[in-house]
Design a protein that fits this description.
The chain is of the alpha+beta class and 987 residues long. It contains 40 helices and ten strands.
Length: 987
Amino acid sequence: MGSVYNQPTRAINWDGWSHIVDVAQDPKRRDAVEKFLAQADLSGEIPAALDEKVLAPRRSAGATGEQCAYILCNLGFAALAVAASKGSAEFAMGCGRLVEQLAPNSPDLALRRHFLSAKGGLAVATLTDQPHLLWDNLAERCATYLRALDYHLETLPSESVESHATAAYSITGQFLSRLLKNRAVKHYAYEVSQLIEVALGLASRLPSTFVSRMWTTLMPGTDAGVFFRLIGAAAECSLQIDKHSLDHAGRGLTYIDEILAQSAVQPAPDFEFTLPIRAELLLLLGRHAEASEQAASAESSSDPSLREYAIAIKARCHLKAGNPQLAAQFLAEVTPTTDQALERWRATWMRDSTDGYWTIQPDAFSPLEDSQLIWRLLAVAAAVVLVHEIMVSNFSLEYVARYSSAATPTMYKFAGLWAGMEGSLLFWLTILGGYVFLLNYLNRNKNRSLMPVVNIVFGIVMLFFFVLVVFFENPFTPLPRGALIQSAGMGLNPLLQHPVMLIHPPMLYLGYVGFVVPFAFAVAALVTRRLDATWIRSTRRWTLVPWLFLAVGIILGGRWAYVELGWGGYWAWDPVENASLLPWLTGTAYLHSVIIQEKKNMLRLWNVILIMTTFVLTIFGTYLTRSGILSSVHAFAATDLGIWFFGFVVFIIISCVVLIFLRREDLTSQNRLESFTSRESGFLFNNMIFLALTMAILWGTMFPLLSEAVRGIKITVGSPYFDKITTPMGLLLLLMVGVGPLLAWRRTSNATMIRNFIWPVGMGLAVIAVAMLFGIMRIYPLLTMGLVVFVAVGIFMEVFRGVRARRRIAGESTLTAFRNMVDRNRSRYGGYIVHLGILFMFVGFLGKAFSVEQDLSLKVGGSANLKGYTFTLDRQYTEVRPNHTAFIVDVSVTRNDKHVTILRPEKRIYTDQNDQPNSEVAIYSRPLEDLYILVGGIDTESGSVVLKIMVNPLVQMIWLGGMILIIGTIVAILPSWTDRKLREKLA
């Protein structure tokens, strides 16, 4: 063995290594292994050669990959035990990389590999002269170890969970402690916050008694104050969102109080530092008075930096409590040494407080806020007055006379507020005022460095719409003398006299206008150079809410088209329909993309572009609807507003481009994609498809206008173009919905790919095979069926694994485990519910491929058959109603000589709309299909009735999917029950 120990660097004795590999399998010979590794000249490249020279012959002789992997683990652990040089730590990490390749299906080995990677990296950082060069990589290694443990919880025995959790939290604690001791939190605040968030996420799936022991491992040695300072720094620097900052602050306060209670018996090292940190956490929890009192007790410290820190906390208490002048006085005491305090404590809020004019002196912006308040009150008052005039039928106003009548039902009179151009613009302005009021109220004590710019953006948008309403489309214009309008009013358009139209337009408006909020925050972040993930976290719910409103509006619009327009479909690719879909698509892409910025600090520029594009598309959609440049069943009459909307859109685009150009260096992301088989790349491909779909729809929508401008010929682009382009893109998007959650962050190994994809892919292919056996041979229906099952199985697997882990580890029932799991990660599982709703909608879209229709001319007593149903015309009659006359036919439906239902379609003549005709559809809905009948015409001389009869399969799945989508979004929006209980406990 002696000759083995002294092997030269370039002439490695592989026979000696072979002997060491044999010895490594025997725990009793561990000393010999460590002695060999201590004297050998090691590097990270040796394990690869070791695999080829030593392990390959053993595999040929029958050794399994798992056995070889255990040998490498033992060698790696021994190397860490004698990490006297960089080489041995690098060798341990090299062994860890090979473990996954040799035995990828073993959870125990996978976790051992992550332990080797994290622990080896920590050893390298300890020994090198410049450890900060490795710290961002170490943070990711520690987080990967925690995530891997989280993933394998359900497959590990309890004792293995405890040992790995202890190791993972211990390595994490050592890493974080060294960051703080080297004063590097300032530079790695994002990595620190993400690491703590991952640690908290894993803790949420472990029993509370176990977690309490695990968290103590995040306080290495006896330096408890280090960990407390870390919690305060991470919570304040990087986790401004209420959920995370409260969670961090609550836990930190609990641990500090425990230490304070123990200090009466045995004072803890660094005890003095816990006082201002406790004040910092109290401040985060909103307990300003207690925080100020706690900080005052630290002012007498002999440490000047600690004294400055305490004074600064007192100043911030006054700032949060709304006393900026008093806060400025306190800050004046530490301003001469502010830079030193900033460097040591990472107190970014001090910089804002001393240099940020609007933070210290918010009164400077009070005129702007006061003017916006006046605008909001005027808009609301005008909307209330207009609704009152419509309700009392004041036909001296031209708007009331055009969009209401004495015979219009009361509930549809209210819809007159948004039935015309003037009222819809006023309604838009009113909703915008509501958003401004709510946003300023909820942000009255936070985001103070961003809110002034946010209000400026709101002010510009409000000013634009006020100018339109006051000078161009005034709803209070008197009716001109001699106007050819009936004295009792023209009445509301018959197509709008449907209950859905009382909800559909307001939902669209709430969605359109709501996207102003994240857009304004994006502009504010660019102007103030605060381009970290803070503005994204602050606007997460402000993005989800308008996204939900827009989704509801689109779904209700499809429902209205289905039951009112009489063509049996729900989406006709009408220009105005497309205008509502475009911002929803880019908004969806943005919601997926920001996840990468929050977790990986990537795609900063991309996210800013996405949210700006979304807002521009909302204004563009408004312009498209109100300019009259494209014919649409939804559009208003052509007006002179088109040029003003176009100019405003151009102004926004130019402003955004200039602002992005000026901040292009600040928008550079620090991290890059490491692998195509990663969740980051999955989200990015998802975004690419959304963007391609948006561009295809936008091109088809605007092509008639471009053709007329260039060639003088207005070409109509119909459904065939959109169906041909969007169907494959939609299926590709559905594929990515299923693929994304099955990929791991950073990189997905081949073993993980096989394990995660085998069941979803297998079930999807099985469904396709069964469908083909039943005679379905069309490619798109087959792909849709397979992809729907693929995505559904993937979602079920993710939920099942999480529930099983909580049941096994925490001993909870299935229902309790599911509820707690969803409650602790609402954004993730709310997203899964939304995806489930999208699947149901795709099933409904699939039914369109199997619908059948027939036009019939029947007399009373006549019948016809369609798809197994018999339709018999029983009678026809007339009813006179307040604002229309209805010609009604009764059609009885039977199947296999059994009565199914009686359908009563109508043909209406609206007397207050110059005898305008309108058909009312009769629909009988069953879970798997709809019977759809429309009166095409009535021949009074012969007594025959022309009926259009359709059997539409699976349409109900669309509306059911829409309801599931709404539920999932609400789950993602609402705060968790755990957070609410924490607030109550800490209040």
